[in-house]
């Protein structure tokens, strides 16, 4: 097919940018101009929000309630800073605390949310509503469009409830920050409601890890060298657990307005994001909802051995987990050496729970240190616990990038010099990659795992992403979008960070000349082939080296596709195009 360079601005024929006329009213421009991205970087919306909070109403008149606004990234009761602050304010004012959740279908479309993520959100909301009800705290779940009107809509709700304060945890994506800034401005104009938005997602908040000249770090290693000591300071409160909310007075059930909120049901689906019955049952088995499930997942990672029977689409909390010495034999204990193995449950599988905030990253660090017997923070490369806490630090790092360099959530490469790399326009290759029909078994197994489980092992993500970008030479933004649309743990910061790493366009990326050989990666990550045989049944009876790279005759016989491209030739093409921006 004809080849063309990726434009630096949206074009009507770009697959990642196609919109209907109706969509155009609320879909963002997926790829901002370089100029607009630079403006956002010069004045990050996160800093604007903190200024708006500081400039807001300070001492509102006492109202009838205090409101906690739950979002898609803080879906828990335990260790929730905004909820704890809202409860404390309510206790101080001797009024009830109410919880609010706003479903925004237009945001879900605009941000490529997967149906699995929305289903997981609703199932967790049902758990949260039940648990809050035990504390006589109502959770009001409402849906609203258009998304641009949410600040006014929320403010009107607050006025109707005669609320004096609203508390929320900060979401760091550009659209969400601008939404909260708008609410702060509306509230200040009316002068009746104090808006407080606080850091909660990260272990160390964005802005607290700075270079000597005050900039945010864009390379992970020096970031970690500053991040870790911040947690070790005697005065540090970064790992402190936020207190649980206090129960409301039971008389709230007799309140003419608040009492009715207990009867507001959590919907079972959002139009356009529903799962069929078979998939919903499978996904709910593979990914249990609720804080208790998340903490049990963490406990098993820290204290039990890996099982080959648990790497697929199975119940992660099934019986049979064997308690072992957490310092040596547990999945955590062996994480340093086994984390890249895809043929067992060697990783924590907590990413969906961290992405939705069903468990806090702080809790993960606290419990990991406790289980491993560590009294001080361990971020060593030489221990399982150190390696795993490093992964949590990577999560912080990428979230800091989104907060301080918002260009990355505007479709721009962090390294603008690579904006003109010439990409292939090949819908057939893109679809084959999505379907797990590339002819490269480890890539196909990874992509089929995503379709089956709504999740992929991290090493599988790296291999599949590198293959799309460097072997097929397809724009990383199309892969980023597909992962968000497919995976249950879609998180803009981590997803974008991973894709830009693979594409060599982001912060601290793989050099453009570092290109994974998918066949050698396969032998390292799945040496016995169990992972491939499980997710690629065409190859279920193949053994040895042929499983990782089937000869053409064997592939034809088994009905398995031949490779879309020759890896060695594709590697040369990729290096040439990165070295010579804009050339074929």
What does this structure look like?
With 584 residues, the chain is mainly alpha-helical. The protein contains 25 helices and seven strands. β5, α7 (174-190) and β6 (194-198) form a beta-alpha-beta unit. α17 (441-453) crosses α18 (458-471). The two termini are 13 Å apart.
Keywords:
mainly alpha, 5-stranded parallel β-sheet, two-stranded antiparallel sheet, 25 helices, 45% helix
Give a brief description.
The protein is mainly α. α7 links the parallel β5 and β6.
Spatial strand sequence of the major β-sheet: 4-3-2-5-6
Which spans have pLDDT < 50 for at least 5 consecutive residues?
1-24
Q: What structural category characterises the helix and strand content? A: mainly alpha
Question: Helix content range of the residues, please?
Answer: 40-55%
Given the structure, what is the number of helices?
Answer: 25
| Main beta-sheet annotation | 5 strands, parallel
Return the average pLDDT rounded to an integer. 94
Rg (C-alpha, Å): 24 Å
Q: Distance N terminus to C terminus?
A: 13 Å
Annotation, overall tally of beta strands: 7
Shape assignment: globular
**How much beta, percentage-wise?**
5-15%
